[in-house]
């Protein structure tokens, strides 16, 4: 097989990039390790910046998003004693949209075939070859047979655990990483949310987040120590802990119900530089990871592929390479600012094992400052809504 751009991974990054290239008349093929059903079974992000929703509108794939997506003009930071509303709309004139990553992925998958975007699911053992030449090759196995995809470029959209970043020779890039000593235990339940906006709660027991997928489906998270066993957290224990951490004003509004999904996600901050090696580019989680506190993960994937699609169109239409050369630096400038915001909000809202009384007082003082400073609230609002491209 031959194509212009071979994309590894059919998550949000790969699907958005594939659609953007096809819309520009550039041929692309996506090679995905899992089945479509498996990709859709993963419960992940919930909050979309306009960076992402604008892409869906540009692609003409925002029909369901416009009907089912929930527009949110603000969210809350709480510490049990008080709730601070960050008024995104008043402070920035912008908003975010609550629309599950699963639904965004479904919309992109469903539109692929009629837009000439070929997705090869259940493609095992993908391996990259000759990435330092202008004729890179991707080999993989599918339906029991060996397969070869030749292309001008390969884009690694294969997430943190993918093969593309690992195909870059040791010493050709730099890794920056911070692993947090805790994770998030997430629960999805078909019960009405406890509030019409998201609540990020800091508590001496640990962090909690009240989110949602719709007006009848809730998504909650609690901070748990690394190494926690999911079996130690039956539904009732999770609901009890959420009531404590979200505080006495919110607890009575929590509707309990059976978990339809329950999982633990580790938290880390991670960046790999540069996001290009020869004819291989990286985008999305393949190049960076943020703790989900700032709701940036999926949205950074969207900004990466916005930059990369523009650069690839420049190359294939005009023969110009300048934008491709600038891609990594341009994407990393926005990535690092989102890494900073996600780290800072994680540091503010979570308990760290090494924290002492002083750290707890600093946390209270910072929330006190935010509660009384429009400047501080504006800083949080503009980062949460998404920094300019
Ligand atoms: P993805 O990981 O989504 O997609 C990569 C794709 O590549 C997958 O489909 C995978 O099967 C495929 N792949 C991997 N290796 C391959 C190979 N060798 N060959 C072929 N295909 C291969 N972000 C938030 O904003 N909020 C959240 O609450 C949140 N929760 C998360 C929970 C978990 C458990 C994880 C892992 C991430 C979470 N994220 C969250 C971040 C997440 O939403 C990512 O930012 C988003 O999925 C990024 O999309 P992609 O870069 O496309 O990577
Ligand atoms: C979610 O609804 O899954 C979600 C929302 C906001 C976050 C993280 C996760 O910051």
Structure description:
The protein is an alpha+beta fold and 389 residues long. It has a domain at 5-46 and 99-176 and 268-345: FAD/NAD(P)-binding domain. Helix content is 36%, strand content 26%. The strands form 4 sheets. An 8-stranded mixed sheet has the order 6-5-14-15-16-13-17-20. It has a 6-stranded mixed sheet with strand order 8-2-1-12-19-18, with helices on one face. Strands 3-7-4 form a 3-stranded antiparallel sheet. It is globular and about 60 Å long. The two termini are 35 Å apart. 43% of the residues are buried. Arabino-flavin-adenine dinucleotide binds at residues 8-14, 31-34, 39, 44-46, 101, 123, 126, 157-159, 162-163, 265, 284-285, 292, 295-298, 301.
Features:
389 residues, alpha+beta, 11 helices, globular, binds arabino-flavin-adenine dinucleotide, binds P-hydroxybenzoic acid
